[in-house]
Structure formats: structure tokens, C-alpha cells
Design brief:
The structure holds two protein chains of two kinds.
Chain A lengths: L31 H15 L11 E5 L2 E10 L5 E2 L2 E2 H14 L3 E13 L4 H18 L2 E10 L7 E11 L15 E4 L5 H9 L17 H9 L4 E6 L4 H13 L1 E6 L7 H10 L12 E5 L4 H9 L8 E9 L4 E5 L5 E3 L13
Parallel strand pairs in A: 5-6, 10-13
Antiparallel strand pairs in A: 1-2, 2-7, 3-4, 5-7, 8-11, 8-12, 9-11, 10-12, 13-14
Helix pairs in contact in A: 2-3
Chain B lengths: L9 H14 L4 E7 H9 L2 H4 L4 E8 L1 H4 L2 H11 L4 E5 L13 H6 L3 E4 L3 H10 L4 E8 L4 H13 L5 E8 L1 H10 L7 E5 H7 L2 H10 L3 E4 L3 H16 L5 E3 L11 H10 E8 L3 E10 L8 H4 L15 H5 L23 H4 L4 H8 L4
Helix pairs in contact in B: 1-12, 2-17, 7-8, 8-13
Classes of the chains: A alpha+beta, B alpha/beta.
Chain lengths: 354, 362
């Protein structure tokens, strides 16, 4: 037997790493590192009352009418993925951001950054998808721009869309409207888009039949509004998934949100891939799902409306707004019944070793 | 999902919680070896629902956490070379070295790729004959066979642009080091199921005997862990010290002979440094001479690195279960997953990261 020693006498740990001095992928991952960049740089320099709302789009009044305005860029790789392509994503993403403001989307702009060598026939496929997606969601592209960059300076195609929508005068949907006792609904199962993208990337050697959930949300939001559901806040789940969306609203509205793990639906194929890679589906990206904070009395009716939608069978009530909390916090009640913090992810989810 | 849902059944879990409450009489400290188990315990809140007189100590079984800083620095230096495609399991990318991490190396334009199987990196070598492909062979006995297989394949197929940066560690020597420490509090062990799936549990029998403590080979799902705890408490209360196999659907006493064979073909044991713990005799694996030409440290001349690790972080004490993450003054203040002081905060399986993600920070 070796000499007894107290290992704690010789503690060791690396030096701390200071703030990042270059942009890493985590700065776009939808987690804390991205939020820090937004808070500490963008909000610091560009602060104003509208941007400070930190909603999916800005709502403003002009000539006595209320409008919503938003922009988003699309850099998805691969450009064509199971269940969609970058073109329809660029339409639906912006349509959905406007819908989350309670707006009826009407016009979009289309900015294309094309890399030298990108196939014209692929571009045509994308533009046709954009046309179809616009028809499906009732919007028109009314202005656009095209730039081409040298081979190697882009990734085939990047798209930016901005969008404008009309908001009814009596509608006020934003994180600041969230109230204690509000019930939180989730419009369907989660994680399909992120896993569909991941399983088609070349370095992952397995196939799945999972398709992206990429879809426009304006119709369903309009339906909820028409049925007079008292909606206080909406948020579509994109990068960072459900976990990030809940945390964003909790911190913006300064509330505690309690959610039940067992009420969050994830289809078996998505769960399977997540188990293999060590991912938590709560943080996996979506492109056609949203959460709604509604007045308690309207929750069951709202759920019925969500469930009646195509792909709405997995819609569920996932939790409620408990109380005011100055830091904003999300508590997830685990399958075992214990409560734990559901934090915002730090950077990107990385596949684990074993 | 069959085979997973069954092991997350809350009513069955409740039965186990009740059964554990019924049999426990005294105070006990049990260490779960593996970071995957720690993660499950904290994620499902198992520790919150156990009787107060059972303390779970989170062991050193997170390969990301115990990889020494020197290896990370070596990885960063190799990955920064323009001719290199550096392949790694995903969760190594964020681990801080002395001045940087692999994510930053990637951000600077170097070719750093996440692979899901070590053999993928051999295929990348075949596809890129003008590049040097280096795989970061990290992990416990669990990943060693697959990593060995990649080296063996490269040897068989005479691939000359492939090498591995080896940082393999073994569980039993670390367990003995923890049990030998004078401030050891561990009274029972939950052994890591997947390590035992490869190695079997024969070598744990002498540990149980010599140190007079029960060892339960345990899986990773909530019901596995609860059953493992139940079996461990049952032995402690009855003053027995046997090795029992909770994870019999995966683990046999002999383990996986094919996996052991390929490991023994490619690797041999060596003295190895553990991050936060220090040097442990014969606790690691290195390439055998026959496979030395695949040793990235030799190829890139990154042999003599020593890093003095700072004392600000108490990850060493945490890895041995003497303190909990919350006992560290840096926890959640200057040390967060965005700015980790130590690797236990970096890895998703690290105790600090699990506590930070799932528990109150204050």
C-alpha cells in the first residue's frame, strides 16, 4: 500500500479563461453566450424603448396604425434538409416572428448572399419554395437584394428576410404582459428541426426519418386571437429550443415559471437520437412550434384549438407562471417528481464522449 | 421508448424511494463513480428525494474533467498546425487549457471536427491524404476499445497520416487512491456500469474485500441508480462488503472479451496525471511500442509539457467527494459554464456543471 496522503494538499486547476476575443459558434447558439453578446454589446450601444422589449419583433405605431417589424438571417447547412429548405425557412421564420407579436404578416424583403459556384438549379428550387411558402402564409416579397461573394467566402447561400405585419389595436402580446397564474401551452412535440438537420450532416453516420417541423404559425395564432383567447405572450421555439424560450421570457418578465417534464412531448425518433448523442431535446431547435402564455380560464379552450391543427396532436399544457422573481427562473418538475432549475444552455450542445 | 421509459417510471421509482427509506437506519456516504450517473441523479432530482441520512458523493468518473491541462494544451498546439485536421468527441472542445480551448482554435480557422466514432477519423485520414489527422483519444475503459480499434485499423491499412493524442484513464486505480486518502468518507460505491460492461467486475472484488465496502455495478437510468443505492444501503446496514451487479442486463463478471483484447493489443498501462488529483500509478493507458508511430505527441514533438495548475478551484476536492460544488466560493460567481475555472464546470457530466444547471446557485 502506498503512503497515505491527503490529495487535497495538492490541488490544481487551470487558469480562468477571460472573455472571448473572437466570435465562436457558441455566440450564435441561442444560449447564454449569445445572450451575453446581445446584452453587453448590442443592447449596450443600441438601447431604445422598442428594442429593450426583447420581443421576436418590434411593435410600433405609425399614422394611427400598429405594425410589427422584424428581421432574421438564415445560414442553415445543409441548404436542403428533410422537411424543407433554407428558402421556406427564411419565409416561415420571419412570418413566425411577426406572428409572435400578434401581427398579421403582410410583406417581406428578401436579401440573398450567394457564393460563387452555387448551382442555379438549386437557387431556382429555393426561390420556388419561397414562392410557395409566401402563398401558404399569405405574405408577399415586395423588395429584395442580391450579392455574390468569392468562392470560399460564403456557404453556398445565406438569406436575410425582414418582415412587416399589422397588429390589431386591441392586441398587446409581449413578455411584459405576462401575469402570475398564466398557463403555458406548447403547440406540439419538440426537437424535430434540430435533429433533422443534425442527422443529415455528413459527419454523422446514421439515418433517420425525422423531418423538420418547419411551418408557418400565423394561421394558428390568428385562430387563437379570433377565438378571443386572452394571449399575454407568444414565443416561437428556434435555436436553443424550449429551454431557451422559457428562460428568455422568465427573465424578461421577471417571473418564476414552473413546467412539468412529463407534459413535454418528444417523438420517439427524436428522443432516440438525443439519447445516442447525449442531447437534451429541451434545448434542440424547432422551426414550427411556439409557447403561449394565456389567461388561466382560457387554457383548455386554447389547447383544444391547438390540438385541432394539423400536427397539433402533441400540443399540451406544460406549466404555469408562479410568481414574480427578479432574476427570472424556470423550474422543471422531473419525471421523478423533484423540482430543478431549467437553465439556459451555455453555448451549443456538444455530443458527449460516452 | 421501450428499454428507457421502463427505467424512468415514476411509480416504480417511488416504490424504491419508499424501500430505501424503510431500510436505512444510520448515516451513509455513497460515491457514484461515473459522471453520467451524477448527471442523472441531479437531473432527475434523485438526491433531493432520498432520506437525509444518505449522502451521495460525486466521483471522478468524468473523462473530460480529469484530462490534465497539459493534454489540452498539447491538443490545442497540434490542432493549431495548418496541416492538421483535429478530430475529437464533442464535449472536449470547450475544456479550457492554459490560455485557450479547442473551440477557439476552430474559431481561428483551424480544422477541428467533432466525430461520433473514432473510426470516422481514420476515414477522414483516407479521404485527406495531404493532411495529418489527429484523434483526441480520451476516456475511461468505456471508450478505450473503440479508440484502440481506430489505431489498429490504421495499422492494418497502413495509413500514415493518422495519429492519436492519448489521454486514457482507468477507474480502479482512481478508486483506490480515493479510498487511501486520509480524509476519505466513502463507505459504499456505485461502480460505473459502462466501464464494467467492457472490463467486467472481477477486479472490483478485491477492492471490496480489502477496503471492506460494498460495490454495486450500477446503470445510468433513475431506476438503475435507485436500485443500486438500495442494494448498497442494504449491504451497509447488514455489514457486508460484496460486489453486486445491478446492471446485469449489460454487464457480466468477465466483461467483453473482444473489447479487452483490442485494448490489450494496442495499449498498455502507464502512470498518469489526473486533473485536480495529480499523478496516480498505473492509472492510464499509452500506446504499445508496436503502435508508437501513431503517437501524436511524438509526431508533433509535444512531449515535455508541465502546467502548474492554480489553486483557486477546488475541483480536486470535489472530484474526491470531500466537498460539494456549492462549497466552493467561486461556484456560480467567477466560475460558470461560460467561464469555467475547472473542468468539473465544463463537462456536461462534471459535478459543478450538473449542479449549476440543475440546482439553485445560492
Amino acid at each position: 500500500m502506498t503512503d497515505k496522503k491527503n490529495i487535497t494538499d495538492n490541488l490544481s486547476c487551470p487558469l480562468p479563461i477571460s472573455d472571448y476575443d473572437v466570435i465562436t459558434m457558441a455566440h450564435g447558439g441561442g444560449g447564454k453566450i449569445m445572450n451575453n453578446l446581445i446584452e453587453k454589446m448590442f443592447m449596450h450601444y443600441l438601447s431604445n424603448t422598442m428594442i429593450n422589449e426583447k420581443h421576436d419583433g418590434a411593435v410600433f405605431t405609425a399614422e394611427g396604425h400598429k405594425f410589427a417589424f422584424t428581421t432574421d438571417s438564415y445560414v442553415v447547412n445543409p441548404v436542403f434538409f428533410p422537411g424543407g429548405n433554407i428558402g421556406e425557412l427564411a419565409v416561415y421564420g420571419t412570418v413566425n416572428d411577426l406572428s409572435m407579436c400578434g401581427a398579421k404578416p403582410i410583406y417581406l424583403s428578401l436579401g440573398l448572399i450567394l457564393e460563387e459556384g452555387f448551382l442555379i438549379k438549386d437557387l431556382e428550387k429555393i426561390i420556388i419554395s419561397i414562392k410557395n411558402a409566401c402563398e401558404k402564409s399569405g405574405v408577399k416579397i415586395i423588395t429584395g437584394d442580391t450579392k455574390v461573394v468569392d468562392k470560399g467566402k460564403g456557404d453556398g447561400i445565406f438569406i436575410n428576410t425582414a418582415g412587416i405585419g399589422i397588429v390589431r389595436d386591441d392586441i398587446n402580446i409581449s413578455p411584459s404582459q405576462v401575469k402570475e397564474g398564466d398557463v403555458i401551452l406548447l403547440s406540439g412535440d419538440i426537437g424535430r428541426h434540430g435533429i433533422a438537420i443534425m442527422t443529415t450532416r455528413e459527419n454523422l453516420d446514421f439515418e433517420s426519418g425525422i423531418k423538420s417541423d418547419c411551418a408557418p404559425l400565423n394561421d394558428i395564432v390568428q385562430k387563437l386571437i379570433d377565438e378571443k383567447i386572452k394571449i399575454h405572450c407568444l414565443r416561437d421555439l428556434t435555436r436553443g429550443g424550449l429551454g431557451s424560450a422559457l428562460n428568455e421570457i422568465a427573465s424578461q418578465a421577471k417571473i418564476e415559471i414552473d413546467v412539468e417534464e412529463k407534459s413535454i412531448n418528444v417523438i420517439e425518433e427524436v428522443r432516440g437520437v438525443c439519447e445516442i448523442l447525449g442531447f437534451d431535446p429541451i434545448y434542440v431547435a424547432n422551426e414550427g412550434r411556439f409557447i403561449a402564455f394565456v389567461k388561466k380560464d382560457d387554457a383548455e379552450k386554447a389547447l383544444k384549438i391547438l390540438k385541432s391543427e394539423e400536427n397539433g396532436e402533441f400540443a399540451s399544457i406544460i406549466g404555469e407562471v408562479k410568481s414574480k422573481n427578479k432574476n427570472g427562473i424556470v423550474i422543471l418538475k422531473s419525471l421523478m417528481g423533484a423540482g430543478r432549475i431549467l437553465d439556459m444552455l451555455s453555448g451549443e450542445q456538444l455530443p458527449r464522449i460516452c | 421508448m421501450k428499454y428507457i421509459d421502463e427505467y424512468r417510471d415514476s411509480s416504480k421509482a417511488k416504490n424504491y424511494f419508499d424501500a430505501i427509506h424503510k431500510i436505512v437506519k444510520r448515516n451513509w456516504s455513497i460515491m457514484e463513480i461515473c459522471g453520467g450517473q451524477t448527471h442523472s441523479i441531479v437531473k432527475y432530482g434523485i438526491d433531493e428525494l432520498l432520506p437525509k441520512n444518505i449522502t451521495l458523493i460525486h466521483g471522478p468518473g468524468c473523462p473530460v474533467c480529469v484530462t490534465p491541462v497539459e493534454k489540452i494544451d498539447k491538443a490545442i498546439e497540434i490542432a493549431s498546425a495548418p496541416e492538421v485536421i483535429f478530430c475529437s468527441f464533442g464535449d472536449m472542445l470547450r475544456v479550457p487549457g492554459t490560455h485557450s480551448d479547442l473551440l477557439k482554435v476552430k474559431a481561428n480557422g483551424n480544422d477541428v471536427r467533432i466525430v461520433y466514432s473514432p473510426v470516422d477519423s481514420v476515414n477522414i485520414a483516407k479521404q485527406n491524404p495531404d493532411k495529418q489527422i489527429v484523434f483526441f483519444a480520451v476516456g475511461f475503459e468505456t471508450t478505450a476499445p473503440a479508440n484502440a480499434q481506430a489505431v489498429y485499423l490504421a495499422y492494418k491499412e497502413n495509413i500514415n497520416n493518422f495519429s492519436v493524442l492519448v489521454s486514457h484513464v482507468l477507474v480502479p486505480p482512481a478508486i483506490k487512491t480515493i479510498l487511501d486518502a486520509k480524509d476519505n468518507r466513502v463507505q459504499g460505491l456505485l461502480a460505473a456500469g459502462h466501464v464494467c460492461a467492457v472490463m467486467g467486475y472481477k477486479e472490483y472484488e478485491s477492492i471490496a474485500r480489502n477496503y471492506h465496502l460494498p460495490i454495486i455495478v450500477t446503470g445510468f437510468e433513475p431506476l438503475d441508480i435507485l436500485q443500486g443505492i438500495y442494494m448498497c444501503i442494504n449491504q451497509l446496514e447488514n455489514v457486508t462488503c460484496n460486489v453486486e451487479n445491478q446492471y446485469s442486463r449489460v454487464v457480466s463478471r468477465e466483461g467483453n472479451p473482444n473489447a479487452q483484447k483490442i485494448m490489450n493489443e494496442v495499449f498498455e498501462t502507464s502512470d498518469t496525471k489526473w486533473r485536480g488529483i495529480g499523478n496516480i500509478k498505473q492509472s492510464g493507458l499509452k500506446l504499445k511500442d508496436k503502435y508508437k508511430k501513431f503517437d501524436a505527441e511524438l509526431i508533433f514533438g509535444v512531449i515535455d509539457y508541465t502546467v502548474e495548475e492554480s489553486t483557486e478551484c477546488i475541483s480536486g476536492i470535489i472530484l474526491q467527494g470531500i466537498k460539494k460544488p456549492m462549497d466552493c466560493p467561486a461556484f456560480g460567481t467567477i466560475c460558470t459554464p461560460e467561464h469555467p475555472l475547472g473542468a468539473t464546470m465544463v463537462s456536461s457530466e462534471g459535478a459543478c456543471s450538473a449542479y449549476y444547471l440543475y440546482k439553485e446557485k445560492n
